[in-house]
Amino acid sequence: MFKHTKTWLAKKLDVKRTTQSINRRITPEETSEQEAIAEYKDLLLKQEYKICELEGEITSLKISNSICEVRIEAYEAQQSNSILVDIQQLFANQTNKGIRKYGESVRADNLTQVEWCQHALEEHADSMVYLMALKKSLEESESNGFKTS
Question: Which pLDDT tens digit goes with each residue over 77-92?
Fold first, then answer.
């Protein structure tokens, strides 16, 4: 495993070509020892930077993979829950209904905040009417001897 990692890292860092390039640039006749040391230090810093970049890429891939796994698990859990499936279908149907009625889906910028509050109040008022009608129906059923729970 270590040998494969070392080979992979060497390919990613292009160590052989970089070293050959520096060896061509640094010849005893033309370069002082300090210049050679500076060149090698520069190379090491670049390689260290590349290693850090690779570590970052690996970490990002691991995180991305974990996020994908969680999303898949959540999706599968949702699909096995009939209540959630029904709610998702209700949202899809309401969105389609709104697009047919208004020509577009809900956007945050097409109404003022006051208009959004008014819409919400009207929707909740309708909801209260529906719930009251349901409650009356359930009470009638219970009074006629039918258990509703």
Answer: 878 888 888 998 999 9
- Locate 71 and state its tokens: 């999303």
The structure's pTM equals 0.41
13 in Cβ contact with 51 (< 8 Å): yes
Helices 2-13 and 15-25 pack at an angle, to 10 degrees, of 50
| Neighbour count for residue 47 (Cβ, 10 Å) | 17
Residues 36, 23: contact at Cβ < 8 Å? no
Each residue of 6-21: b (16+ CB within 10 Å) or e? eeeeeeebeeeeeeee
Degrees (nearest 5) of the Cα angle 111, 131, 97? Answer: 40
State the Cα–Cα distance between residues 93 and 113, nearest whole angstrom. Answer: 25
